[in-house]
Amino acid sequence: MATTKVLAGARVVLPSGVVDDGRLVVEGTRIAGPAPESAEIIDVSGHWLVPGFVDIHNHGGGGASFSGTVDDVLTALRTHREHGTTTLVASTVTDDMDILVQQAGLLSELAEQGDIAGIHFEGPFISPCRKGAHSEALLRDPDPAEVRKLIDAARGRAAMVTLATELPGGLDSVRLLVEHGVIAAIGHTDATYEQTVQAIDAGATVATHLFNAMPQLGHRAPGPVAALLEDERVTVELIDDGVHLHPAALRLAFRQAGATRVAFITDAMDAAGIGDGRYMLGPLEVEVRQGVARLVEGGSIAGSTLTLDRAFRRAVTVDGLAVEDVVTAVSAGPAKLLGVYDRVGSLEPGKDADLVLLDDDFRLKGVMRRGQWVVDPQLG
Ligand SMILES: [Zn+2]
């Protein structure tokens, strides 16, 4: 039986550009160089072959959340894999510190096993003025000692912490995170332009869902949006679901930052991959109607029901972005940010065989993770 597969005939998106009628060789769990003669040839002509997606901000899907049990986490993970996300950072939401510490322990084990790529703590160190769908009573200032508790609880698997860096202890917390190799993300913030510049200078490198949960861009008070967009050191997260951002705002950010400084994220909650209904986001109740998640109390947007295959398709077909740029923003860029680009994020020999097959209308038609089909190719 052939253990080597050759995916032949697709438009393959490589770091060097798009190759028409390309061939991709998969041997075991990895992408390989030239194929042996015994290889199984799979004709995927008429399709796009792109690297598996990398989501650095995701709270759940498939009716389950990354704040739940091991089974919940695996359900959410499976749901997003079926939509092309082969590398995923699990995000928590604001909760009691003891609960977060406990959840960090659970998630760190799944990271250890290679199921998730790390943990993102969104809250509790965020601004009550920009709390979004976070429980106000549980918010707190970013005291470095408390931040340290979460880093320790994650046992080396903390990937990112979102914080409002203008709060007391904010800048010291950024420095602490950087010292421990954890990404400091500015978000749910009420900072001015100047305060945001200070936080970037202290080492913050990510904007948590740029535009959302922060002051608007103003021409006399440019706020965090301008500071985050203009600094070459910052990667900006964008939620391309047609709800969180107008296409023009998304294009503006994309063009200003350039594809290499954008990370498309889902910020998905439990309803992703399922549909409308009542759900929980951490301790808060959420109602999803026509795919839009809002808090039952107050009506704040409460995450998204997005999956990255939909974000990809929308970016190309609605926002008019180039396929190669979208691949950069949904795979290569976030992989580099996480420090895992040596293994994932592009279709190159030696890397994990993580890939997504799309038809010529950019609909998902197959997903492979580490050489195994998660979604069998549908080549009709
Ligand atoms: Zn979030």
UniProtKB/TrEMBL annotation:
- What general EC class does the enzyme of this chain belong to? hydrolase
The UniProt keywords, alphabetically, are: Carbohydrate metabolism, Hydrolase, Metal-binding
Pfam families per UniProt: Amidohydro_1
Under Enzyme Commission nomenclature, its number is 3.5.1.25
Recorded hits in InterPro entries, A to Z, give:
Amidohydro-rel (IPR006680), GlcNAc_6-P_deAcase (IPR003764), Metal-dep_hydrolase_composite (IPR011059), Metal_Hydrolase (IPR032466)
Residues crossing the lipid bilayer are none
Residue intervals of the Amidohydrolase-related domain? 49-374
| UniProt entry tagged with the keyword Electron transport | no
Q: Which GO MF terms are attached to this record?
A: N-acetylglucosamine-6-phosphate deacetylase activity
- Cross-referenced NCBIfam families, in alphabetical order? nagA
The record ties this protein, via PANTHER family, to: N-ACETYLGLUCOSAMINE-6-PHOSPHATE DEACETYLASE
Q: Which family does it belong to?
A: Belongs to the metallo-dependent hydrolases superfamily. NagA family.
Q: What is this protein called?
A: N-acetylglucosamine-6-phosphate deacetylase
Where does this protein come from, organism-wise?
Streptomyces cynarae
